[in-house]
Design a protein that fits this description.
Elements: H1 8-35, H2 40-47, H3 61-87, H4 95-127, H5 131-135, H6 137-143, H7 146-168, H8 173-192, H9 199-222, H10 238-265, H11 271-277, H12 291-336
């Protein structure tokens, strides 16, 4: 494929894939930089004299080398889509971004399901003063610290959720929706029959409901399940709908996701990083210690939507090409008939 043969749709294909891959590289390197104190992209630039911020370059050779790999990941996020388009490898295949988004969302769903159940149980036995009896005084005291509970309870459960997502490869919205209903039912029964109510009960429902609302957005987008209130789009032809979806995703969808990621993760004091890195919790007595994870929900939302907007753009480009081929065949049939 030569540069002259690159079409506008090839360019849109590149924008869709590169935006998704850059988003993944940005989120991954954000946590590598601030959790493991790696130099990141800006730190690597500072090594060659391009200092765009207060970057610490007094690090070991190994750390600097890891920073170079971090920078290469951004380059790969741009080069790989170019190679796909140039070499026509799985050309116009919307399955790849959809599969990646599916894994991200599925891992997030299973993670919040396990974290919600276990953290709620710990909060309950802690309130009822059963925790020292179950795990001992020292561990009970440690589980009252957000950082300890996050590192040694939440993160292993998140790892389990990721493993299940890689093996299962499907999204189980129905289970989380069912758990929300059961959680609300438990609150009603406990409050009005047994006059028992604790902060962790409301925290659990809010935790799961926020996850269901934000994580299912990408899935609903691809399956066209969002509620539409329009008087124009419904009357469009299939070709015009495809153009609307492509340009709408490029102008509104992808930029919105990047605004969320950049505003939330740009530096260590950005709101998402501030909450996630400090294990931020609510101040409601013995509530659940999951507030910091709810900040991460927006990161998952933006990242999964980036991949699904890429899938959406490529899918609609395929629809346009199929429509064009059908029109050409119809024209040829009319000429020879």
């Amino acid at each position: 494929m030569s540069l002259k043969s690159v079409s506008l749709m090839d360019f849109f294909h590149f924008i869709a894939l590169s935006s998704a891959f850059l988003g993944g590289a940005f989120v991954l390197n954000n946590f590598l930089t601030y959790i493991y104190d790696l130099p990141g992209f800006f730190g690597t630039l500072a090594l060659i004299g391009i200092n765009l911020g207060e970057i610490n370059t007094n690090t070991s050779f190994t750390i600097k080398l890891l920073g170079v790999f971090q920078t290469i990941s951004y380059l790969a996020a741009v080069v790989y889509p170019i190679s796909i388009i140039y070499n026509k490898i799985d050309y116009r295949d919307e399955k790849m971004p959809n599969n990646i988004s599916e894994i991200i969302v599925s891992a997030a769903f299973w993670s919040v399901l396990f974290v919600g159940l276990v953290d709620a149980f710990i909060s309950f036995v802690r309130i009822e003063d059963f925790l020292p009896i179950i795990v001992g005084e020292d561990l009970a005291l440690s589980l009252g610290k957000p950082s300890f509970r996050g590192m040694y309870v939440h993160f292993p459960l998140i790892a389990v959720g990721i493993i299940i997502a890689l093996l299962r490869r499907r999204i189980d919205f129905i289970w989380l929706a069912l758990m929300i209903v059961l959680g609300e039912l438990l609150i009603v029964i406990a409050r009005f029959i047994f006059s028992y109510e604790q902060a962790f009960m409301g925290d659990l429902v809010r935790f799961w409901y926020a996850a269901l609302f934000l994580f299912s957005s990408a899935y609903t987008l691809v399956h066209d399940g969002h509620v539409r209130v329009d008087i124009i789009y419904a009357a469009f032809s299939e070709k015009r709908k495809a153009h609307t979806n492509i340009y709408g995703s490029l102008i509104f969808g992808i930029p919105l996701c990047w605004v969320i990621l950049i505003r939330g993760l740009w530096n260590e004091s950005s709101p998402f990083n501030l909450a996630l890195l400090n294990f931020e919790v609510t101040q409601q007595g013995f509530g659940m210690y999951v507030k910091y994870l709810m900040s991460g929900f927006l990161v998952i939302f933006a990242l999964s939507m980036l991949f699904q907007f890429a899938n959406f753009i490529i899918s609609n480009i395929n629809n346009l090409e199929n429509y064009s081929e059908q029109s050409d065949h119809a024209s040829e049939h009319e000429r020879f008939s």
